[in-house]
Amino acid sequence: MAIRDILLLVDGGRGSTARIDATLALADAWDAHLVALALVPEPYIPAAVGVNIPPEILEQQRRRAEEEADALLSRVDERAGRFARPVERRREIAPIDRLPVLFARHGRHADLVVVGQPDPEENTADQALLVESAFMHSGRPALVVPYIGARAMPPETVICCWDGSREAARAINDAIPFLEKAKRVLVTVVDPQSLGGRVGPIAGADMAAHLAHHGIAVEVKDIESGGLDVADVILSHAADEGADMLVMGGYGHSRLREIIFGGTTQYVLEHMTVPVLFAH
User: Fold this and answer.
1) CA angle 39–5–249, rounded 5-degree value
2) pTM for the complete prediction?
């Protein structure tokens, strides 16, 4: 299996350059087609009571936003020069509440979507909606790159979080192209006794056997949380094992522009220090 088509969401956040470089490294490793997408919110200036905003003001704001998006896309071209790799540029402009829908539509025509971790130092509501859209609504796996960047891409050590769920099964299968290139792959089960029969009589053994059929050697790790939060246990385990990437099933839903992820997904997104491949 290989990834042949990658969609990268570009923005002006502090982790943008690191995300671009990580994505270019992946595209180079798979010789994949790379699309850089910039999403531009339609200008909106609240009108005061009884005051009309001249159309030329809105048009001026729109042109400025488009120029900023073009500058972001040009940055991708500049970084891509090191790999001598062409990049397809795309730009979409729409009302801000429509951008996640547009992002998901573009994602459906890619093998992998790459997006940045929501940055706590910025207004993260819209960022979080885009991240959610990347793996919840595109039908594709999403690689979320932390704003501190990626240590190694493609990753050399990968931890697959396994709980027997449909979402986790989807994520691990979507990660096979990464796992085939990795030097070390772990299937980790947290508190297997609490999962009932979902992970089989020997926790993780069935998933390890499945991956072995793809020629992937796997270490199975069963971890007891000791009453700690599962997300905390996973992130600590990733640090202890020197992981370059996590693989997880993703959960989430939106309501009235407020993102509410499942507890583990939310916590990992907020505290991640390595890229995480999410799928739903």
Assistant:
1) 80
2) 0.90
Is 152 within the bounds of a domain?
A: no
Which contiguous run of DSSP H or E holds residue 67?
A: helix 55-80
Q: How many domains, the chain?
A: 2
| Co-location of 73 and 180 in the same domain | no
Output the domain CATH number for residue 265: 3.40.50.620
Q: Are residues 14 and 129 in the same domain?
A: yes
Residues 113 and 86 in one domain: yes
Place of tokens 């159309």: 55
Phi, psi of 254 (to 5 degrees): -115, 150
Number of neighbouring beta carbons within 10 Å of residue 91: 16
Cβ contact 63:69 at 8 Å:
no
Comparing CA positions, the residue from 32, 42, 44, 36 lying closest to residue 11 is 36
Residue 255 has pLDDT above 50, yes or no: no
How far CA 220 is from CA of 175, 207, 234, in Å, comes to 16, 9, 14
pLDDT of residue 260: 40
Cα 79 from chain centroid (whole Å):
20
